[in-house]
Amino acid sequence: MKATQYNKYGGPEVLEINKNAPSPTVESGKILVEIHAASLNPFDVTLRSGRLKEMMPLQFPVTIGGDFSGVVFQLGKGILDFKIGDEVYGQSLIVNGGSGALAEFCAAKTVGISHKPKNINHVEAASLPLVGASAIQVLVEHIKLKKDQKILIHGGSGGIGSIAIQLAKYLGAYIVTTVSAENGEFAKGLGADEVIDYKTQKFEDLLKDFDAVFDTVGGDTMGRSFKVLKKGGVIVSMLGVPNPELAKEHGVTSIGQVTRINNKTLARLTELVEKGAINPQIDKVFPLDEAREAFEYFESAHPRGKVVIKIKGI
Questions:
Q1: What SS3 state is found at 43?
Q2: pLDDT tens digits, residue range 191-212?
């Protein structure tokens, strides 16, 4: 089996294509998937860098990646919800009991898998699990976003932001997003009502009385965002819990998002994709043999949407 692996912590330079990696074994509660495509996420970079090695120590070699789309190849004992030949998508992160996604095959727990949306291909489906689950968890579960409420979404042209804008529009909200000037029309095309150029404009001077903020950027953006919220509002960040003291001072709720990918959320995502509420946003597609180059691009270019690795059908 061919797989993208690393044998030590570091940057993209530690990634290697192993053409003789052993195929994953299928245990009870798992399925073996022939992977057609996989996508890159910031967590893949964080894990590979070693920043989490005390909390999540790895046993090398590690097959990188989590998000995938493919076809069920083999079933573990007790699997009733899937059959061989089903098109599925989900996650196979090594730290969650999977075998890694940037490979020709992966083993994954069925709790983190669902049937792929019928109206999109594997490349598009592979771009969705983490970003789609994150957007649903934040907007529907944490914020409980309702029609005509106002939400500020930071990083609207990124992987999560581009999906969050579409979901917020579907829910009927008024959406403002911060992006670079060159991504303004892209964000409006997704459904943003207003765009703010984060390089030249201060969003906190332009906005007030918002019901919610979704932060995918972090840094001082997180702290400045409290100023735009009305009392009783909610701020959710992908990069830690927004300052509890500021939350108390402004009379708002602050939540640090830890995305949970499960088949219930993925089934909801499939439903939204199949009815046209959410469309995958893909910046660039690489073959598996160019996985290192894909990560170099992903980590330096600020992609518009997702970077995907096409594994089968090159």
A1: helix
A2: 999 999 999 999 999 999 999 9
pTM above 0.85, yes or no: yes
Which residues are CB-contacts of 112 (< 8 A; sequence separation ≥ 6)? 90, 91, 92, 96, 98, 129, 261, 262, 263, 266
3-128+280-310 fold: Quinone Oxidoreductase; Chain A, domain 1 (3.90.180)
Pair 112, 261: CB distance under 8 Å: yes
Q: Any residues with CB less than 8 A from the CB of 128 and at least 6 apart, and which?
A: 39, 67, 89, 163, 269, 273, 278, 280
What interhelical angle do 263-274 and 129-136 show, nearest 10? Answer: 90
Q: Does residue 160 contact residue 131 with C-beta atoms inside 8 Å? A: yes
Q: Is 131-256 in CATH node 3.90.480.20?
A: no
